[in-house]
Structure to design on (479 residues):
């Protein structure tokens, strides 16, 4: 089985070199080399972002010091939506092209996405208590972010309960693609409904409605979360590769696994 | 088209041969909605306020009960495999099964709801909204639910997993359905709710049979 697949990936290799890394056997060492690089970036961006957000960014005129939770809250919300889209894209690629690695990437991203959605809701609650006087309100954006968390949990539960990994990948892919409808709903919810949650502070087509240092702090923390997500997803995908390919020859000859 | 109708006829016939399954679902709907006044107290103003939510949430749970047997028996005895092999497009046959599920688990709820509504002291115009929103909303529940039912075919702990997958996707229907009834009961404009529900129905009609077919193919492969 594995030898047939290996020879097939070998043939694609000669046509387009880029697809070389779509094979778990070649991707595994590449991911191993990339992980430290992304960890270093995550730490650098994290320190710079937190330094700006705690010591450089001015105190907000309306919300005082309490607003500083935005530097964790907004990046986590962005990442929760972005990771879901990436997960759906990987899952869709796996479904269409029947590539093993894409499905593994989708599976590796799900727990990080769920963590980001959870952080977003949790920090939102901490921010909501002093500003709105309530830990939770049933507002469109909060509700749709909560649905996003449920979608991540459903995706993981579905994958965990199907024994055959190939079937689990495909079933999960369909669920991920169905759930992708929710992402634009979260993003535009503050525009579509009159909500308690404040509108977007940063958008692509207009200048941000906040001080530049605040924006920089937020962007740096977002980059830190982004790099962290890549690093942790690569670590997880390496574990998944080892688990699924444990029967193959290349894993058996791997240093440190023998 | 004849295959579509034949599937509906067959599924309805199967249901008629074993009425208890469907009646259980309807009784569940009636009993759970009747529990709320007993648990919360019979204050009519309060009941009128919670009626839209109670009726809609119970409708969601009732359709969920019927979903488990949407594909399970056909999957177990190999009928689903034969359907996939037949020259008729599988999406059409799956569509027929979804339509039959709605006729059995969705339509009766819409017809029963006014009786429940009277228990909750809703006035005539609000009862009309209850029926109309359920008529637009329950097909969406059947369509979305079919995706979950096909995904969890032959999976360990399928029933609980099904609710975990499907209920989050039901939330928009619940919000707009119950929202329309509430808006009507306090005299606000309900047009927007109807438009959004109908838009959800059109989207679900377009995508859900396709996604369900893909999920069925994964399950039987």
């Amino acid at each position: 089985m594995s030898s047939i697949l290996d020879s097939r990936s070998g043939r694609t290799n000669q046509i387009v070199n880029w697809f070389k890394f779509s094979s778990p056997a070649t991707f595994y060492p590449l991911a191993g080399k990339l992980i430290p690089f992304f960890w270093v970036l995550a730490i650098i961006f994290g320190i710079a972002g937190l330094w700006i957000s705690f010591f450089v960014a001015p105190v907000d005129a309306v919300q005082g010091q309490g607003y500083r939770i935005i530097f964790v809250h907004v990046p986590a919300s962005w990442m929760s939506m972005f990771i879901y889209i990436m997960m759906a894209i990987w899952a869709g690629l796996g479904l269409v092209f029947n590539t093993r690695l894409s499905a593994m990437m989708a599976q590796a991203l799900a727990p990080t996405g769920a963590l980001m959605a959870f952080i977003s809701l949790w920090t939102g609650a901490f921010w909501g208590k002093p500003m709105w006087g309530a830990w939770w309100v049933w507002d469109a954006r909060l509700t749709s972010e909560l649905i996003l968390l449920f979608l991540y949990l459903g995706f993981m539960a579905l994958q965990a309960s199907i024994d055959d990994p190939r079937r689990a990948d495909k079933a999960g892919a369909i669920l991920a693609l169905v759930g992708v409808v929710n992402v634009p709903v979260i993003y535009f919810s503050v525009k579509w409904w009159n909500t308690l949650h404040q509108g977007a502070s940063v958008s692509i087509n207009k200048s941000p409605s906040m001080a530049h240092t605040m924006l920089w702090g937020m962007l740096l923390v977002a980059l830190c979360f982004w790099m962290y997500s890549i690093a942790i997803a690569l670590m997880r995908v390496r574990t998944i590769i080892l688990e699924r390919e444990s029967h193959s020859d290349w894993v058996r000859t791997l240093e440190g696994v023998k | 088209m004849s295959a579509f109708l034949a599937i509906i006829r067959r599924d309805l016939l199967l249901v008629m041969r074993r009425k208890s399954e469907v009646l259980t679902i309807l009784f569940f709907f009636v009993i759970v909605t009747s529990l709320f006044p007993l648990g919360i107290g019979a204050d009519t103003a309060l009941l009128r306020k919670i009626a839209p939510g109670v009726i809609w949430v119970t409708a969601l749970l009732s359709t969920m009960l019927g979903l488990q047997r949407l594909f399970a028996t056909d999957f177990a005895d190999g009928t689903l495999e034969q359907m996939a092999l037949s020259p008729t497009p599988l999406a059409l046959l799956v569509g027929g099964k979804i339509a039959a599920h709605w006729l059995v688990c969705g339509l009766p709820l819409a017809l029963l709801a006014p009786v429940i509504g009277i228990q909750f002291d809703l006035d005539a115009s609000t009862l009309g909204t209850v029926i109309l929103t359920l008529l637009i909303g329950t097909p969406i529940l059947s369509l979305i639910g079919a995706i979950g039912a096909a995904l969890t075919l032959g999976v360990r702990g399928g029933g609980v997993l099904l609710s975990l997958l499907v209920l989050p996707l039901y939330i928009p229907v619940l919000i707009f359905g119950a929202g329309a009834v509430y808006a009507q009961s306090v005299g606000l404009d309900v047009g927007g709710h109807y438009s959004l529900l109908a838009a959800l129905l059109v989207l679900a009609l377009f995508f859900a049979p396709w996604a369900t077919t893909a999920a069925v193919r994964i399950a039987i492969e």
Q: What stands out?
A: The two ends of chain A are 21 Å apart (CA to CA).
